[in-house]
Predict the 3D structure of the following.
Amino acid sequence: MTLVESLQKAIDYMETHLLERITIEAISKQAHVSSFHFQRLFMILTETSVGEYLRRRRLTLAAQELSNSDDKIIDIAYKYGYDTPEAFSKAFRKQHGVSPTEARKGIGKLNAYNRLTIQVNLKGAEPMNYQIVEKEAFHVVGIKKECPCGKEAMGIAEFWGQVTSDGTIGKLIDLMNSETKGLLGLTDNYDEEKNTIDYWIAVEHIGNPPADFNRLDLPKTKWVVFEVHGPAPTAMPEVWKQIYSEWIPSNGYEIADVPAIEAYTDPDPYSTESSNQIWLAVK
């Protein structure tokens, strides 16, 4: 099953179970990827989060029922997952710009979000430089922070600023003693209930970490190493979008349930000439 087919299967599953309290884990199983990878994949290809898509679709259907039925507003609110009429009214007004009562009376315009159909455009206009690497099990050492998932990866930029200003970066650079050179950004341990991930700033290191650092073990696996050219804050997201929308659909690999790595191998990741890497485990 291709990536597009798997993602469409997950979307169809969401649509079938819109009136239930479905989990990201259950949805991601339909696409055969981990919960975090599915969140990232969905966000990149649709430019919205899974939770936001579900909310928009439920409120779209709720608006249709308000316009086409005589069901009580409170019953419609409960049907679409809202515990109180007040919570339903607040969410409804945020999406549609009018209250449920006004929508029933035909006052104002409604914002409908239609069911998604995924289509990936495989132009391949921009070349992607990559290599396949078989790597034995290894571990990284560093520090981690729980960060909320979302379109702007809130908290990660601040985390990098913190470790740069407090001297942690220098300590990590001193610990680099293996083949992978550069600072590594990794995402791990997705928490569905809180919608957070653990973000690591680390280096590959042989040996046990010092007392003030943590260790993350990575298994023997196959990695696709993509080159990233240009200022990292803009170039990294652009390459991630190419990976999900172009490279994976046109190659015979599935994403492995292993933390992805952004390797900042250039001393100046903000330079227009900067050259860095993305490591994606595949199977």
Observations:
- The domain at 3-104 is CATH 1.10.10.60 (Arc Repressor Mutant, subunit A).
